[in-house]
Design brief:
By secondary structure, the chain is of the alpha/beta class. The protein has a single domain, classed as Ribonuclease Z/Hydroxyacylglutathione hydrolase-like (Metallo-beta-lactamase, Chain A). 26% of the residues lie in helices and 26% in strands. It is built from four helices and six strands. Strands 1-2-3-4-5-6 form a six-stranded mixed sheet. The longest helix is centred in the last third of the chain and has 12 residues. It is globular and about 35 Å long.
């Protein structure tokens, strides 16, 4: 099976001309997997003619803003586009609290299920 990894952004948290916060899109067969979702990720996906609705899983590596601040907007856009397929969200503990709090205060109720899988992203000595 072939795969393609597209770097959508690789910059740091500080805005830079011509660079974008971190996000990578992994395509395996028909599946699309987003690795991190920095601010502006959905714009980068559109610039590269990638369908937002084809995302199956979103992985967030850690809770620094440059890795997940684009997630709120992306989920909102998927909702507005009428997404119904479930979405798997994999990330560090606490990400579910952040998203739930954001949804509560913005009044949004997603029209699709988001299943959160917490992953301990802290390094441990062996």
């Amino acid at each position: 099976m072939q795969f393609e990894l597209q770097i959508l952004g690789s910059a740091s948290a500080t805005p830079m001309t011509g660079r974008h916060p971190t996000a990578q899109l992994l395509a395996v067969g028909e599946g699309r997997y987003l690795i991190d979702c920095g601010e502006g990720t959905q714009w980068r996906l559109l610039e590269h003619r990638r369908r937002l609705g084809s995302l199956r899983v979103i992985f967030i590596s850690h809770l620094h803003g440059d890795h997940y601040f684009g997630l709120f907007g992306l989920l909102g856009t998927l909702h507005l586009q009428g997404r119904q397929e479930p979405l798997l969200l994999v990330g560090p503990p606490g990400l579910d609290f952040v998203l739930t709090t954001q949804a509560l205060h913005s009044g949004i109720q997603y029209g699709f299920n988001i299943t959160f899988v917490p992953v301990d992203t802290e390094a441990h000595a062996v």
